[in-house]
Structure formats: C-alpha cells, structure tokens
Amino acid sequence: MNHLVIVGACYLDTILAVDHYPAEDEKLRASSLVRRRGGNCFNTAEVLQQLVDLSSRAAVSLVLSAVLPASTSAGSQQIKSSLPETVDLTHCFYREEFNEPASSYIIKSRSVDSRTIVNFNNLPEMTSSEFTAMAGKLGDKAGYYHFEASTILCNAGRIPGVILECMLHLRRYFPAVRISVEVEKPGRVGLRELAAQADVVFYSKSWAQDSGYLTPEDCLRAQAILTPKASLLCCTWGNEGAGALELPSLTYTHSPAFVVNAVDAIGAGDTFIAGMLYGLTCHGEDWDTLHKLGFANELAGHKVAQEGFSGLGIAMQHALN
C-alpha cells in the first residue's frame, strides 16, 4: 500500500461569529464561539481519511507531517484526538520544549460574509534536513506528496524556500513520486517556483484574482507555461465551481458548484483538495477529470452546508466507488 504524505501546518482555531467586523476599540458581543483543530493540510487529511476508510477502492495509507508542540502537551493530544486513528502522525516533528500549538483566531462577519484571521505561532519551523530524513525513512513506500505552501509560516519567503528544497530532493532521489502543491494566499513569495516543480497545482480564487485573472480558465492557461512538470492544474472559484486544465493537451474542464444553503465555508477549499486527492490516488485511471472535479465540488458543497468536517465521508459514500 502506497503512502500519501501531506506536509503543512496545524492550528487550533477559535472562531467567533459577529454581526459585523468591529471597529478599533469597539466592544462587540459574538453570536457564537467554536474551538476546533484547523490548518489546511490537517483539514484535508481529516476529510480524505474518511473517504479512504469507507472506500473499497482505496489503496493508500495517509501520513501527516507537520511541526507540533511537545508530544505530551495538551495541544498535541487535542490535535491527535481530532483525527481518525488511521491517520499516521508518527512522522510529525515535535518541538519538545514548546507546549503551545500554533493558533488562529477567526472573526466571521455575517454582514459581509468575510473572515478575518489572526495567527500566532512560535514553533520552530520544519527544516529541509528534517524533511529529507523523513522522506528517507518512508522511501519508495511514499508514492505521493502534497504540500501546503500558503500559510502564515511563509515568513519572508523562507518556508517556500524550504519546501522548494524538499521538492527538489524528491525529484532527485525519488523521481517516481507525484507531487502536488496548494497555492492559496496572495502575496506569498516563492509560490510560483513551487508550482513549477509540481505535477498537480491547486490555485485559489483569491490568489488568481490578486494575480489579475478574471476566470479560472484565464488563470490556468496563463500558469500552464510556468508549470513545465505539471499534468493537471486546478482552480476553485467559490459558488461558480472549479476548473481544471490537463497538460500537455491544454484541455480545459469546468464543473459547477454543488449548490447548498451555506452554513460554514471555512475549510471548503481544503475539502475540495481532499476530494481531488482521493480521485487522483484512488481513481486515477477510471475517473476522468470532469468526474474528479464533480466529486470534489460535491464534497466541498456538503462541507459548506455544515459546521466542521465530521460525516463528510458518509455523505459521499454513494459516489466513492
């Protein structure tokens, strides 16, 4: 069984829902408060593992790699308990001298449907030598690596540089592995260089619009000339669905969004990526691109219709095989 390795950051999220975003020095009462584990790659892993556990076609074992506080700390224990037991966390990097996990404080404004995020993280970041040692231990058992490269950890371009070193290491020593990367947050230095080394790239609507693109197709066709190793580029576009461009044929496919009554959109993009990773690793040959996009869009739609990520695999059980 091949390992699918997801590399990124983990946060403990505190989510406050308010009627409007507060002005400076304003005191405002929140209408709800939710505390849960977050982080793009951990959200993706939680959903993907649900799909794998329920599928008769899945032949992958999910490995998470992230920097966490001390292994016995309350934060690390909370993070571990938030994931299915079948997710392998033995390849995480524990900072034993630290007890506080990375944290996010999210203010959801109902009036304009916006999210304002404040992050805190004092954990020493993953180094390329730590990653190469982990990749060496996994060896040829790891057939796919997915990198999150869009978090606040991209400090002055350093983390994209580390991830680029990790990708180049995989290309040199494990040339058979497939690599995907998420390009989400606008303004992060080095993301295009990461995309240039990936087989699959996931672009967000916010990144595409910040780069001047008006549609997902515009974004993907422009990025195609900058991603020489890629076989598939994807771009999500909120309630307008998602697009994908196959390379080198330049065949563009669009799938409409799965329409629901929106409850909680936090993590919808992470859920979409989980759906695509499931399609790519478990149905790479028998699902075409439109099928994969439709599956990922429906999965993301179910997520938007509920708080959190529990039960999404069951919601998609009819479509897993």
Provide an overview of this structure.
It contains ten helices and 14 strands. The two termini are 18 Å apart. The strands form three sheets. Strands 4-1-9-10-11-12-13-14 form an eight-stranded mixed beta sheet, sandwiched between helices. A four-stranded mixed beta sheet has the order 3-2-7-8. The protein has a two-stranded parallel sheet with strand order 5-6. The protein is globular and about 55 Å long. It is α/β, with parallel strands linked by helices.
Q: Any key phrases for this structure?
A:
14 strands; globular
Summarize the structure.
The protein starts with a strand and ends in a 6-residue tail after the last helix. The protein is α/β, with parallel strands linked by helices and 321 residues long. It is built from ten helices and 14 strands.
